[in-house]
Design goal:
This protein has 207 residues and is an alpha+beta fold. It has five helices and eleven strands. The strands form three sheets. Strands 1, 2, 3, 4, 8, 9 and 10 form a seven-stranded mixed sheet that branches. Strands 5-11 form a two-stranded antiparallel sheet. A two-stranded antiparallel sheet has the order 6-7. A hairpin with a 2-residue loop joins β6 and β7.
């Protein structure tokens, strides 16, 4: 798996920059401190308990694997481990910009001057992705195009599904496994019950 150089050109965004145009009034302006990595895109601040998801960024699901040059590697676990290593023992500075449909804070997050999502995308750890009705981050797609062209990380594995397509395919597969409530027309139907005229009245009622 190819990995990008640590020295990369990041976004002009900074931890103190204005990052949201229609920012909800109930959002904190800044969340700062040590974090627990929930998954490759989600952080929980230890002191406040606030959960934050990185804006404009997605990563392989934990169970996803990739194959690069014939070598299999755990793409989902690599993405989560990358985030752990980047934040372990560090103070993370997040600038919230919105909430998602579940009320989780969406934010741009930094360790020092390093934009976590932008760096992960540049190194091929994850993908630029904007969910519907969430703030768009167009600059991340420019970073992704460079990583894709160089074949970094996830882009070195042609058969690796992006996480949103992988999730959709798993949902379809699970739906296909649900047994239908309709009877299978290929099975033989039971024979109809017909009265046995040879039985007497006493035989029918057990007399």
């Amino acid at each position: 798996m190819k990995i990008a150089s640590i020295s990369i050109i990041l976004l002009t965004l900074s931890p103190t920059a204005s990052l949201g145009q229609n920012r909800p009034a109930d959002l904190p302006r800044q969340i700062y401190g040590k974090v627990q990595v929930v998954d490759a895109t989600t952080l929980e601040f230890k002191k406040s308990g606030q959960t934050v998801r990185l804006a404009g960024y997605e990563a392989s699901r934990l169970e996803q694997t990739a194959t690069s040059d014939g070598v299999e590697w755990p793409a989902g676990q690599v993405a989560r481990a990358w985030m752990v290593l980047r934040t372990l023992g560090q103070d993370v500075n997040c600038a919230p910009i919105a909430r998602d449909a579940n009320g989780v804070i969406i934010a741009h997050c930094f360790v020092g001057e390093t934009n976590l999502a932008a760096t992960a995308i540049a190194e091929g750890i994850g993908y630029a992705f904007n969910y519907r009705n969430e703030p768009q981050v167009p600059a991340y797609f420019d970073i992704e195009r460079k990583a894709r062209g160089l074949g970094y990380g996830v882009w070195s594995s042609p058969d690796l599904l992006p996480p949103w397509l992988y999730t959709a395919s798993m949902a379809n597969e699970n739906m296909a496994k649900i047994p239908s409530s309709e009877p299978d027309s290929g099975l033989p139907l039971p024979l109809p019950v017909t009265p046995n005229n040879s039985l007497s009245l006493n035989d029918v009622h057990g007399g």
